[in-house]
Structure formats: C-alpha cells, structure tokens
C-alpha cells in the first residue's frame, strides 16, 4: 500500500510537467524572425491603460507558437497580447543539432509603461529561473537523484523567499510545496512530506479557483492515506 501511495504522489508531480527545452527570454529573443506590432484593445486605449503582459510561450520545432499561458498583465490587455504572440515566428531551436520544442517567457508592451518596465522584466526573469530550477529538480527526483533534486528545489525556494507576504506567486509556491513533499515522500520522510502538503493545501484555500486545485486535493488526500497507513 505504501509503495502505491508513493507512486501516486510522484505521478501527481509529473502532471503538467514541461517536457520542452527551457530557453532564457534574452536567448529566445535572438530567434525571433517576425513580431507583428500588437493591436491596442479599444477599451484599454480609451481608458488610457498601459502596461506589460508576460506570457509563457511554447515554440514548436518549426518555430510556431501555440498554447500560450498568461503569467501576468492587465485583463484588458491580456487577450490582445495572447492573440499577438500567436503570430510571432521564431527560428527553430536545436539541441544536439536537432530541432526541439522550446519553452520561454516573453513580454508584450502596450503604450509606454516606464514605471513598471524594470519590475516586469525582473518578474519575467524570475519566472524563467524559478521554473528552470523546479523542473530540473523534478527531473532529478524522477531519476531518484535526491541530492540533485534537493539542490535544485532549494534554488527555486530561494527565489521565492524574498516575497514574504504569501500573496504573490501562488502557483509557484504551490508547485514548490508539492514537489518538496514528493521529494520527502520518496525519501520516506513522512512527517516532512505532510507539512509540505499542508502548505500546498493552505495555498489552495487562499485561491480556490486556481488551476492547481484538483492536484492539491489529490496530494493532500494521498498524504492523509499515508498517515493512516499501517501496512
């Protein structure tokens, strides 16, 4: 029973895990072939709303964009940014001489949001560093390299540490907590795993409409099963 539970938790960690090659934003920008100017949404223009929209962008082997994820941005600007980036064209990315699917972050600017430019760029770079470290940690965990996984997950945790109010980066905090719980479970550190899963569940309670809702409930329920397992 205990081994079955561990497998279920590890499977949950792999859910939604990126299999694409992560490319830093500045490096990805060098691959852009065409980048149409974004159409300013009429309502946003009338309201004089300016700002940056940060997106996570998968780029297939032919350099075409699809399945974009919104990271941050004003609601009146977000949809226009999504539609704009779908039209971008990249020079294909290669790994060991072969085309690969890449994953990166881009920023679409509307107007001249000078007051937010530096902060938004810092956020984009944070996203790249955090998800790169987290996914490397997950990969190491999948190979049972627990030392490597802990090292990478600690890097991801250090990136989250400067924001102490807990109201930012909820998705990232949930993903880090569940992965840390999975690492502890794989090492049979049951009490430590339970604490991480409780942290993830608390994040769920602050944002019940978040996309990670179902996975949080699964990991928490699994943890409770483990606690009561005497086999």
CATH top level class name of the largest domain: Mainly Alpha
What is the spatial order of strands in the main beta sheet?
Answer: 1-8-3-4
Number of β-strand runs: 8
Q: How many domain units?
A: 2
Structural class: alpha+beta
**CATH level-four homologous superfamily name of the largest domain:** Tetratricopeptide repeat domain
CATH topology of the largest domain: Serine Threonine Protein Phosphatase 5, Tetratricopeptide repeat
- Could you tell me the strand content as a percent range? 15-25%
Tell me the helix content: 40-55%
Rounded to an integer, what's the Rg over CA atoms?
Answer: 19 Å
Q: Kindly state the mean pLDDT as a whole number?
A: 82
Low-confidence spans: pLDDT under 50, at least 5 residues?
Answer: 1-11, 13-18, 211-228
User: What form results from the Cα inertia axes?
Assistant: globular
Order of helices and strands: HEHEHEEHEEEEHHHHH
Count of DSSP H/I helices: 9
Main beta-sheet annotation = 4 strands, mixed
| CATH architectural label of the largest domain | Alpha Horseshoe
Report the end-to-end length measured between terminal Cα atoms. 7 Å
């Amino acid at each position: 029973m205990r081994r079955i539970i561990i497998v279920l938790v590890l499977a949950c960690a792999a859910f939604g895990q990126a299999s694409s090659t992560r490319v830093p934003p500045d490096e990805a920008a060098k691959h852009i072939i065409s980048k149409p100017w974004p159409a300013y949404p009429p309502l946003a223009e009338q309201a004089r709303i300016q700002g940056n929209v940060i997106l996570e962008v998968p780029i297939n082997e032919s350099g075409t964009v699809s399945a974009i994820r919104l990271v941050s941005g004003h609601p009146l600007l977000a949809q226009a940014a999504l539609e704009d980036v779908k039209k971008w064209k990249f020079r294909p990315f290669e790994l060991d001489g072969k085309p690969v699917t890449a994953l990166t972050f881009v920023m679409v600017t509307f107007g001249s949001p000078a007051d937010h430019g530096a902060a938004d760029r810092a956020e984009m770079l944070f996203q790249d560093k955090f998800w790169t470290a987290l996914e490397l940690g997950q990969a190491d965990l999948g190979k049972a390299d627990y030392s490597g996984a802990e090292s990478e997950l600690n890097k991801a945790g250090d990136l989250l540490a400067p924001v102490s109010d807990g109201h930012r980066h909820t998705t990232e905090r949930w993903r880090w907590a569940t992965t840390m719980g999975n690492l502890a479970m794989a090492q049979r550190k049951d009490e430590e795993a339970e604490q991480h899963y409780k942290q993830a569940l608390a994040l769920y309670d602050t944002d019940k409409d978040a996309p990670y809702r179902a996975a949080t409930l699964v990991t928490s329920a699994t943890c409770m099963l483990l606690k009561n397992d005497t086999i």
